[in-house]
Amino acid sequence: MLIRRLKTLLQPLSDPHLRLIATESTQNQLSNPSNCLNPITPINQPTLLKVCTILYQQQNSPDSRLHSSLSSYNPSFNPEFFLQVCNTFPYSWRPIYRFFLYTQKVPHFTHNSVTFNKMLDVAGKSKNIDLFWETCQEMGKLGLVNDKTFRIALKTLALARELKKCVGFFHLMNVFGVGYKLETLNTVVESLCKDKLVEEAKFVTFKLKECVEPNGVTYKWLIWGFCDLGNLIEASKIWNLMVDEGFEPDAEVVETMMEALFKTNKYDEAMKVFQMMRVKRMHDLGLSSYRLVIKWMCKRGKIEQANGMFEEMCQRGIQADNLTLASIIYGLLARGRIREAYRIVEGIENPDISIYHGLIKGLLRLRKASEATQVFREMITRGCEPIMHTYIMLLQGHLGKKGRKGHDPLVNFDSIFVGGLIKAGKTVEATKYVERTMKRGMEVPRFDYNKFLHYYSNEEGVMMFEEVGKKLREVGLFDLADILERYGQKMATRDRRRERAVDP
C-alpha cells in the first residue's frame, strides 16, 4: 500500500520536464559554481522511490538503523536528489529532517541556499516552529540567506500570526551579517501582499521603519494589497501617508486605486481621481489608464462619455488596443447601437478573443443568443479558439443563469446535471440539487455552469456532449447543440486542450 502511494506521488517526476518544474527551476541555480559544488545528474526514479520508502517507514527509527539502510544509496545523493525527496514529503518535516542530518555526513554532499530554503519551506508548512528557527539560524551562520529565505520565513510567520517574530527575523538576520535592505523589505512586502497577508506586511513595514525607511515601491504594494482585499479605508490611509512623506503615486498606483473604487460602486470618487490626474499629471496618463476608465464607463452605460475619452486618447497619439475597442463595442451594443458596433469590428485588422467576447456579451445582453452563437462560429472559423468563459457566457445566454427556460428536459439542465452527478458517484450532491429544485415555491439559485463543465471534462463527457447534441438537434436547438459539441471536441480533456486544432 505504501509503495503504491509513493509511486503515485513520484509519478509526475518521471517526466524530465516536469521534474525541472517541480524543483522550481533549480538546475540553473545549482549549476552556478558560486551556489553549488555538486553538478546536476539525472535522478534515478527507482532509487528515489526506495529512499523515500525507507525515510517514511523508518522516520522514528534509531539513527544507526536509518543510516545503515541509506548508506548503500550514498553515490546517488546530491542537491537535486534532496529537492526531489522534499517534493515527495512537502508537509512532513520528520523524514526530511532525518535525511538532512544524514546528508550532512555524506562526504561528497554540500548543502546550499536552495536546499536549505526547501527544507525551511517544509518546516514552515508542517508548522514545526522550533525546527524552523533552528534552520534559520544555521542558514544565517553559514551565510546562505537570500531574498527567497526572507519570503519563505515571513510567509510562514505571518500565516501563524507571529507578527513580532516577523520583525524579529529581520533583526536576527542582521546579527548574522545580512543587513537591513530596502530591496529585501520590498520583496517581502510584495510577496505578503500577493498572498493576501497585507495587515502583516503593514505591521512589518512600520515596525522596521527605524531600521529601513520605506519608499514609494513599499507603499505601492501596500495600497495594491488593501485594494485587492477591498479595504479602501486602509488603502486611502496608506495613500495619504505616502503623499505626506513626499512620494508621488505613480500611474500604476493611481489605476489600482481607481479600479478598487470602480469595483465598490464608487464611480464618482474614481472619476475624481482620474480628473486629478488629467489636471495635474496629464503626461502620466497612458493607454492602461484610459482603458480602465472607458471599460467602466461602458459597463455603466455612459457610452457618450466613453467616446469622449476614446477621442481624447487618440488625439494624444495613444493607439487603442483590442481590449479598449472591446469595451467600446460592448458599450454600443448594450445601448442597442448594433450597426456602430459592427462597424468598429469590421475596421479591426486583427481581432482577438477580447473583441469576440465584447460582441458576444453585448448581443446576449440584447437577448440575441442566436446571433451571439453565430459570432462564436465566426471566431472559430477565423482561428480564434474559445476559452471556458466563452462557453459559460453562451450557455447562460441560451439557458439563463438558472439553467432553465422551459419545462422541456432538453431545454433545462436539471436532468442532464443530475444524471451526470449520479454517474460520477456524487449521489449526495444530486439529492440536494433535486430537493432544492422540487421546492418550486422557493427561488431556485443560479445554475453552476463551471461545476457542470468540470464534471464532464473527461472522455466520458465527450460521448455525453455528442449524445446531447443529437437530441438537441432533434428538437431544433441547433445553436445549443453546436456549443456543447464544440466543447466536447476541444475542451473536454487535458490532452485535447493541449493539442487544439482549429477546424477549417
TrEMBL record:
Family recorded in the similarity comment: Belongs to the PPR family. P subfamily.
Q: Which InterPro entries match?
A: PPR-containing_protein, PPR_rpt, TPR-like_helical_dom_sf
Q: Does Repeat show up as a keyword for this record?
A: yes
PANTHER family from the UniProt entry: MEMBRANE-ASSOCIATED SALT-INDUCIBLE PROTEIN-LIKE (PTHR47939), PENTACOTRIPEPTIDE-REPEAT REGION OF PRORP DOMAIN-CONTAINING PROTEIN (PTHR47939:SF12)
Q: What is this protein called?
A: Pentacotripeptide-repeat region of PRORP domain-containing protein
Q: Which domain of life is it from?
A: Eukaryota
Q: Does the keyword Mitochondrion apply?
A: no
Q: Which keywords, in A-to-Z order, does the entry hold?
A: Repeat
Note the segments forming the PPR repeats: 215-249, 250-284, 286-320, 352-386
Regions crossing the membrane: none
Species per Swiss-Prot/TrEMBL record: Gossypium raimondii
* One Pfam family cited in the UniProt record for this chain: PPR
